[in-house]
Amino acid sequence: MHSSKWQARTSGRAVGEVYYPVGPVVGRCCRGVYRRTHDSRHVDRCLLQLIAISWMGTAAREELAVSPNNNVVCIYQKNGKEWDKTQELTEHSGRITGIDWAPESNRIVTCASDRNAYVWSLKDGVWKPTLVLVRINRAATCVKWSPLENKFALGSAARLISVCYFEKENDWWLSKHIKKAIRSTVLSLDWHPNNVLLAAGSSDLDCRVFSAYIKDIEDKPGPTAWGAKMPFGELLLEQRDCGGWVHSVSFSPSGEQLALVTHSSSLVVVDAAHGKEATPLTTDRLPLMSVLYVSPTEIVAAGHDCVPYQFSYQGPGRLSFVKKLDIPKQASKGSMSAMQHFRNLDKRATDDDMNDLNALHQNSITQLRVYSGERARIEKYSSVSLDGAMVVWEFKH
Questions:
Q1: DSSP code of 287?
Q2: What share of the chain is helix, strand, coil (3-state, %, to 5)?
């Protein structure tokens, strides 16, 4: 049974809104460690790991689709400062690994470790699934709608990318495979603004940009800074040996730059406008898991440090760290008794009386998503993490 409601919690920081599940919660442990919830009773129990999330924002309502580390997708609708669960999508038999909600066509695509993908359409107030012929023999890992929402890309452990589109004649979703040069699991995907180019990060330590042009459903694309000839599956960039698994990729609003984060605690920006020159920045922080362009020059990335960071790219060789975006609240430290001092040493091998990290998230951030704003000027973005919390951040330009 999953929490039927998320509730806002005051953070004491001017960053946005923080939401925690309230009510009975059952989920998988974070590495087997039970963490304390933030309800009034402070009962120790296992929190949900939010592994996939997608937003649907309109003038009339705000909704989100989220999976709590199992085979169910929960649909929530905002009600004041709370999020109320309205439906559950239960077609998958394996753990959900990716969700994406198309805002214009109002369709949800999901993929899972059961090697299947479904496109969900809202009919008479109920979400109905349509099976997609993805033709893979390993688990699906990520999924992403194209900007025009006429196709989507699905990454998998089968060392290929399925580009799926709807065939009206037979009334089903078909797929074409991109296999060239991919030597391991596809971990992340992002579409170029022109609806044709597709970036993919992989666990073979490489990042690639392919053409995903499908002549049956779209016009022939014009030349870009990444290349002029773009038949389906054409490899336009292969950034070799990025230092670690490429966890996340993000095109800039113009599409001329590509940001990627790796398990080597590095952020790399490849600039197609300057001969596809790569500018790496190795940080002294824990590995970053997700990256997002919030303006033509500013980048937000987050991961195992549990806080988002801002970076700035001003051109080749000019990639720099700007600041930490989760500013800790100053807390007064009271006196500690001798009994408490030795109790803390015995239980946690430390005399610190603090139970939580000095951050809004208490575990690794797994995903950043656009919440509001245009692609060239994102006003708010969200983060979810293994602590079961969702935070909506306001980005100040």
A1: P
A2: 5, 50, 50
- Contact of 218 with 230, CB cutoff 8 Å: no
Fold of the CATH domain 52-331 = Methylamine Dehydrogenase; Chain H (2.130.10)
CA distance 11 to 206: 38
- Give the closest residue to 388 by CA, choosing from 14, 33, 117: 33
68 DSSP 8-state letter: -
Q: Which two tokens mark 97?
A: 């690994």
Q: Could you report the per-residue pLDDT of 150-168, keeping only the tens digit for each?
A: 999 999 999 999 999 998 8
Q: 296 with 285: CB under 8 angstroms? A: no
Cα(131)–Cα(58) distance, integer angstroms: 27
Structure tokens at 371: 């919440």
Q: What is the pTM of this model?
A: 0.85
* C-alpha distances out from residue 225 to 20, 153, 230, 237, 268, Å: 43, 22, 12, 11, 18
Closest to 311 measured CA to CA, from 327, 300, 326: 300
What's the burial of 300, exposed, middle or buried (CB within 10 Å: 0-12/13-18/19+)?
buried
- In the beta sheet, which residues pair with residue 209? 199, 237
CA nearest neighbour of 280 among 251, 240, 308, 252: 240
Maximum Cα–Cα distance for the chain, whole Å?
77
User: Looking at beta carbons, which pairs linking 113-119 to residues 24 or more positions away fall under 8 Å?
Assistant: 113/139, 113/140, 114/71, 114/139, 115/139, 115/140, 115/156, 116/92, 116/140, 117/143, 117/154, 117/162, 117/164, 118/89, 118/91, 118/92, 119/173
Task: For CA atoms 272, 304, 103, 376, give the dihedral sign.
Answer: negative
Q: Which residues of the chain have pLDDT under 70?
A: 1-16, 19-61, 328-336, 344, 346-356
Q: Which residues does residue 370 pair with via DSSP β-bridges, in sequence order?
A: 381
Cβ-based burial of 330 (10 A; exposed 0-12, middle 13-18, buried ≥19): exposed
Residue type, 251: F
Number of Cβ within a 10 Å radius of residue 368 = 24
User: To which residue do tokens 């580009």 refer?
Assistant: 163
289 and 247 in contact (C-beta within 8 Å)? yes
Q: What residues contact residue 363 under an 8 Å CB cut-off, 6+ apart? A: 30, 35, 306, 385, 386, 387
